[in-house]
Amino acid sequence: MAGRHRIRLRAPWAAREEPQGTVLRRRFHRPTGLDAGTRVFLVLEAVSATLRLELNGAPLGESEGETGAEFELTGRLASFNELAVIVLGEAPHEPAKDLPFQAALEVRSP
After folding, report:
1. Beta-bridge partners for 76
2. Which of 45, 40, 26 is nearest to 96 (CA)?
């Protein structure tokens, strides 16, 4: 049965100032019960800053503006993962609480 299941990536996000911008990190496990043909995406919404993304230390892509973005993670997921979101330019006052985006994993079954 085809379907979509969304897993929101809420707190805790760890924030740290680095030379390239504010880096927000969030750890998560690989979703369980993935069948052949099931795909996993990172979905960003309500983006209010320019973002550079990394998954487990490897570049994933960038997102700008308020349109949001999707990144396929299916072949990149380990059992335990770390998503890094680098906020380029000006960051919110308390980025760990006032995220400049909403993030979720979206599991899509065929």
Report:
1. none
2. 26
